[in-house]
Specification:
Number of domains: 1
Radius of gyration: 17 Å
CATH class: Alpha Beta
Number of strands: 12
GO molecular function, one term: 2-C-methyl-D-erythritol 4-phosphate cytidylyltransferase activity
CATH topology: Spore Coat Polysaccharide Biosynthesis Protein SpsA, Chain A
Order of helices and strands: EEEHEHEHEHEEEEEHHEH
Pfam families: IspD
Number of helices: 7
Shape: globular
Enzyme class: transferase
Strand content: 15-25%
CATH architecture: Alpha-Beta Complex
Keywords: Isoprene biosynthesis, Nucleotidyltransferase, Transferase
Largest sheet: 8 strands, mixed
Protein name: 2-C-methyl-D-erythritol 4-phosphate cytidylyltransferase
Structural class: alpha/beta
Low-confidence stretches: 13-17
Amino acid sequence: MKQSVIIVAGGKGLRMGSDLPKQFLPVGGKPVLMHTLEAFRKYDAMLQIILVLPREQQDFWKQLCEEHHFSVEHLIADGGETRFHSVKNGLALVEAPGLVGVHDGVRPFVTLEVIRRCYKLAEQHKAVIPVVDVVETLRHLTDAGSETVSRTEYKLVQTPQVFEVELLKQAYGQEFTPFFTDDASVVEAMGVPVYLAEGNRENIKITTPFDLKIGSALL
């Protein structure tokens, strides 16, 4: 079965306090984004990799690839107004039938085991997302203040989120709403259930200077 991944990288680095978009910040001597693409190439040498970048960042990315002699083959799609529109642009380059994953460009520490697990389970369940347990105490904000809720009833969601290509294309044919915060929410809006797979705790999303420190330590 043909497999693809759409890697979405549209960050502007605002929470980093940096002029350099977070996906280009160096970790271990090379940009975060390169680590992410390499993780998926290690999973499958034949995997179609589609990188979604804002058009104004694409020349800089090509320059970085030359400087770092980066040779992981990939296609580039234009980023959209929102993550929803960016994924939709990437999907236009994916042919059905098959499986397609969607992954955050700033999650470079996803393990090969998690990638394999999500694609394998998607063959049967059609829509699979990796999750990890909540280890902190949670409080729910109410009109009266706040209250403790059971953390056993919640999971933290990661990527890659993997789907049948036909299903995800159909889902992204829907009209955009602000409630679409990830690909699972788009698919669920059609009434399709999403299967939960075990993720890995190191699969952090690098969005703050503290995350960069954690990333350097993980490397």
